Amino acid sequence: MMRLIPCKIFLLFFVIILFQNNLFSQADSLQINIQEIIDELLQEPSTEVDNSDLYEKIEDLLNNPIDLNKANITDFQQIPTIDFLTAKEIINYRNNVRKFKYKGDIFLIKSLTNEQKKRIFPFVTVKRKKEQTIKKEKINEPFYKAQFKIRSRIISDLQTRKGFIDGKFSGSKPKIYNRLLGTYSNYSIGILIEKDPGEKSINDLNTFFIQAKDNGYLTNLIVGDYTLEFGQGLALWSPYGFAKGADAIYPVKKKNRNIKPYKSANENNFFRGIAATINFSPYRLSAFYSSNKFDANIDSVTNEIISAPIDGLHRTTTEIRKRKSAKETFKGIRLDYINNESINAGILYYNANFSNSFLSSSIFDLNGNNFNYFSFYYDIFLKKINIFGESVYNGTSIASIINMQFSISKNFKWVTSVRNYPRNFTNIHGFSFGEKPGTVSNEFGIYNGIKWNSPIGLIDIYYDQFKFPFSTFSNPVSTQGDEFLINLRTKPSRKIETVIRYKIENKEITKKINGTLQIVDRKRQNLRGELIYKASSTLRLRSRFEITNYKISQLGINEFGYLIFQDMRIKPFRNLTITSRIILFNSDSFNSSVYEYEYDLQGILSNVGLSGSGIRWYIVGNYRFTNFLKISLKYAETYKPDEKQLSSGEALLYNNVDNRLSLQLDLIL
Fold it and tell me: What band does 401 get if pLDDT is binned at 50, 70 and 90?
C-alpha cells in the first residue's frame, strides 16, 4: 500500500499542472520566500544541523529593511547574494541620476539584471519625509510608534522516545518556545524563553535585551544579551554564519553587523551584559562587557573544564549537573574607521576570563583560564576590486585570511581567498570562512570561486584546497583534501527554472586496517537535478533527484544513496498557504545519507538526514486570520518499512515511524 502512495501524489500534481490556469489567478510575482534564498546560499551539510539562526538573520533584515537613500556599501552588502559592485551600482544611481522616491525605483537601474533587482526588492525601503513629519506631529501619542510581536511555538513527537519510557528525562515531551519583541521609536526590547523536549523548566533558556539606537553620538546601546561581529570572524563573531554553498561568491565575505541584540534560541556563544557604540564620523568606537554562565563538564578532582557541550540539553541528571556550571567574564574595545567610498578598517582587543581552567588534551588545545586577542581588519574598495581580510594575534601565533574579489564585468565575478589558521592558534568566539566553519584553528586553505551570468544561465563554480597541518580529533596525523562544486541555474521560460549541481570532496581520513591506523582517501560525490515550475504566484511545484556516492578504495567501500522528492506550494485562498513534500530515499548506510532542507514554521531552518530506505513526507499550513494574527501548522512523518527501531541512545524509538506535530502563533500588536 505504501508503494502506491507516491504514484497517486505524483498523479495529483500532474493534474494540477494541466488545469492550474483555470484554478488560480495571477498575483504579485515578487513574493519573497526565505527558503529559496537559503537554498541558494547553503548546500545541505553532511550532518544534521539546525540553522535557524541564519533564518532569523534574514527574517530580521526583512522586518528592518535598508533605506535606499541612506544606506552605504556596507549596509547594502547585508542583503543576501549582493556584493560590493552591486552596492556601488545602487549608490551611483542615487548620486548621479536621482534619489529613490519609491522602493520600486530599484527596477529603473539599468546596470542591474532583473534577477538582482528581484532579490534586492524585499530587503529595501524608502522612508519619506511626509511619514517622518506625521510621526513628529504624533510624538505625544505614547503608543503611536509602539509595536509588539509575539511568537509562540510548540513542537512535539507523537511517538515516545526511550528517555521518557525509562524515566531518565525529567520534563515533558513538547519543545516550547515563546518570544516577545517590542519597538517604540528608537528603542526596542526582547524576551525569549524556551525548553527542549525532556526538560523540566519552561524557561530552561531565557534571554532578554533592551536596545536604544540613534541618540546623538550614541548610535547603539544594548543592555542584556547581545552578539558581536567583527571583521572576517577570526577573532569575534556570532554563533552562526554562512559557509561554502551553491553561491560561490557571497559566503566568502563576512558582513559584520557590529553589535546586535540576541534574538535566537541557540544557547551558546552569546554575551550577557552591556555593549555600546559611539559614532564620531569617520570613526566609530565600541565597548562591551559580559558576565555569562555556560554549560561545562568539570573534573571533580582538578576542577578543570573537561568539555563545554553546546547542545543546550538539560534532561537527565548528568545533563542538569553541567548546566551553567562555569562562567566567562568578557570585556573588550573596538575602533573602526569608516569611509565607504574607499576603505573600512578597524582594530579590536578583548579579554576572556573563565571561572575554571581548561584541561587540554593536546598542547594546541585551550589551556588556562585567561585569554587575550588582538585583531586588525580591512575592507578596501577599488574600481572593480574589493580586498578584504583580517589578522589576529592570540599571544602565541597569528591567524589570517586574505580575500580579493574581482568584478570583471556585471556578468562575471571571481573571488580568491587564502586562509592560514596555525595549529597552535586557538579561538573561543571565532567563526571564519573555511572547511570547518566555526573552527579557526589548524587549517590552511586556498579557495577560488566564480559567478558567471552566462547565456545559458547563472553558473557558480568553486574549488577549495585545504590542509590540516596537525592532528585533529578524528585524525592523529596531518591530513589534506579538496572540494569542487559547479551549480547551473537556468530559466528556460518565465515559469520554469532548473538547477543542476555537482559536488565532489576528496579528504584524507584515518581508518583501522589490519589493526593499525592508516590514512585512506575518502571520496564523497553528489549530483543533483531540480525542476521548479512557478505556474502562478499561487502555485509552485518543485521536483528534485539527488544521488550521493561514498567511496574508500583502500577498504573496498563503495556506497550509494539517493532521494527523489516532489513538493508543492499552493495558495488556494488569499490568506492561506500550504506547502507539502514527499521524499523517497534509499542509502546503503549512514555514510551515504542524503540531506534536504525543509520548509517549516517561520523561524525554523533545519536539514534532515535520511539513511536506510523509506518515505518521508510533511505538510505545512500558514493561515493569516487578520493583519495581526497568523497561525502555522506542520505535520512531518518518516517511515522505514525495513526497520524495527529508529534513532539511538535516549532518543531511540521502538517502532519504524517517526512523526512530529508543530504549531506556531504569530501576533502583532
Answer: very high
Per the CB < 8 A criterion, the answer to whether 188 and 153 are in contact is: no
pLDDT digits (tens, 9 = 90+) for 62-79: 878 889 988 888 888 888
Residue 51, in any domain of the structure: yes
- Whether residue 398 sits in one domain with residue 285: yes
- The answer to whether the CB of 627 falls within 8 A of the CB of 638 is no
Q: Does residue 516 form part of some domain? A: no
What is the maximal distance between C-alpha atoms in the chain?
Answer: 82
In a shared domain, residues 369 and 255: yes
Domain check: are 239 and 174 in the same one? no
Pairing of strands 124-125, 66-67: parallel
Beta bridge partners, 558, equal 551
User: Domain limits at 224?
Assistant: 213-449
Looking at the structure, tell me whether residues 231 and 373 fall in a common domain.
yes
pLDDT band at 51 (very low <50, low <70, confident <90, very high): low
pLDDT of 583-592, one tens digit each? 999 999 989 9
Phi, psi dihedrals of residue 150, rounded to the nearest 5°: -115, 130
Residue 123 belongs to a domain: yes
